[in-house]
Amino acid sequence: MDKKKTAFYNFLFLAVAAGILIFLFMAPPETTVKVPRDKAHIEFYHMPKKEAERHCSECHGKEVGNPLPKEHPPKYRCLFCHKFSKGS
Ligand code: HEC
Ligand code: HEC
To answer: Which class does domain 32-88 fall in?
Structure first.
């Protein structure tokens, strides 16, 4: 490989690395409340996420139980934002 090409690939590598870093940096911090590991939620830990999400609104709907805050962001994929809590 000639020098020019090497320089180009070095540049490309740096650009990609910088891009990834910036992307990671821009991603919002994971501060969203986790799904509690309690009786109400434990069954969802053993379910495919898409299936589990269909049940969330049974208790987190407008009228029932523990409704979402008024300023809650769009909510089609609960588990995309609300991760499961760690531990077993
Ligand atoms: C059986 C009823 C029920 C179902 C179904 C349910 N939840 Fe809950 N959820 C509750 C109750 C009650 C609370 C408040 C008390 C607690 O922490 O468990 C709560 C609290 C939460 C909280 C807030 C915890 C906190 O620290 O404030 C999150 C996030 C949450 N649920 C997410 C979900 C998601 C996501 C699903 C669907 C996978 C779901 N819930 C399904 C009853 C339910
Ligand atoms: C786009 C990301 C996102 C999605 C999708 C989402 N949420 Fe949230 N949720 C949040 C944020 C952000 C908050 C603000 C509270 C916080 O993070 O402390 C919140 C708050 C909540 C709270 C109140 C927690 C508390 O203690 O105040 C509950 C309960 C909750 N969400 C349940 C759900 C359910 C159920 C779904 C699916 C129907 C869902 N969320 C989908 C981001 C999301």
So the answer is: mainly alpha
